[in-house]
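Dear V.,

Thank you for sending over the compound details. I've combined the ligand you provided, zinc ion, with the protein sequence from our construct and run the structure prediction for the complex. I'm sharing the raw inputs here so there's no ambiguity about protonation or stereochemistry in the SMILES, which I know was a concern on your side last time.
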Amino acid sequence: MKRYFLLVAIVVAALTSSCEGKRQAEHIFLIGFDGWGSYCMDSVEMPATRALMEQGCYTLKKRTVLPSVSAPNWASMFMGATTELTGWTDNGERAPLEPAYVNENGVFPTIFSLIREQMPESKTACIFEWGGIRPLLDEKAIDHCVQLKPEDIAAASADYIKKVKPDFMAVIYDDPDHVGHSKGHDTAEYYARMEELDSYLAEIIAAIKEAGIYDDSIIVVTSDHGGIGHGHGGQSMMEMETPFIIAGKNIKQGGEFSEVMLQQDTAHTLAEAFGLKVPQMWSGNSMSQVFD
Ligand SMILES: [Zn+2]
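Below is the predicted structure of the protein with zinc ion bound, written out as C-alpha cells.
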C-alpha cells in the first residue's frame, strides 16, 4: 500500500512539473525607457545597449498595442494581454475599461503576480519614475516597489541589486518621453537623452557584475512607444515600433530576429525565461526562439 502511494506521488510530481518549463536564469532584469522609438537607433551610439544587441537577440519592430500611449503599453508588457482584456485603454489611476479578469489583489495578473504565486521565495523589485506605472504592477506581489527621481534611479537600483540580488527587477525610466514632448522626437536633445539613459543602463549592468550574478542573469531592454513631432498616441511606425533586446544566460547570440512581436509578448517571454506556467487570460506568444 505504501509503495502504491509513493508511485502515485511520483506520477503526480512528474505531471505537475511537466506543466512548467526550465528556468533559464536565476536573475532577470527588465530596463525600460518610456518613449524610446526604434527609429532613433539610426542616430545614436548607445554603447551599452548595442553591446547587449550583439551578445543576444533583438527586434526593432516590436509593435505597440493601440493607442500608442504609456499605460496601455506598460500594462500589456506586464500583464501579457491586449488592452481589451487588461482594461488599460488609456492612462489613468484605474483601468478605463473594466478588466476581463482580476486576481485577489484586484489587478489583471502581471508577471509579478505569476512570480509571487509560482516562486513564493523569490525577491522582486520595481523602481520607476512615472507614478502611472504603479497601478500596472500588482504592487502587493512585489517586495520592493518605489517611485524615484530619474537622477536617483541608477544608484538606488545598483544598491538594491548588490544587497538583495533579486530574482526579478524592473527599472522603468520616464524618459526620453519628457524630452520628446518638450523638445520633440527625432531631435538632437532627444538623442542626447538616449545617450544619457544608455549610461544609466551601463551603471546597472556594472552593478549586476559587481554583485557577482552577471553570468546567471538575463537582461531585457525595451520601451512602451516611440513618438513623432511632440507626441505619440497615433499609428505611425515612429510611434508604434520599439526595441526589444534580450541577452544573457541561455540566450542565443542570434542578432536581429524576424518573428513578429507585440507588447504582451514581453510578459510571455519573461514567463518562459522563469519557467512559469502562463494563466489562461494571458494572450500572446513567448519569443521562444531567443532561448538556447
Ligand atoms: Zn510612454
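A first observation: The pocket of zinc ion is lined by residues 34-35, 70, 177, 224-225 (CB under 6 Å).

Warm regards,
I. M.
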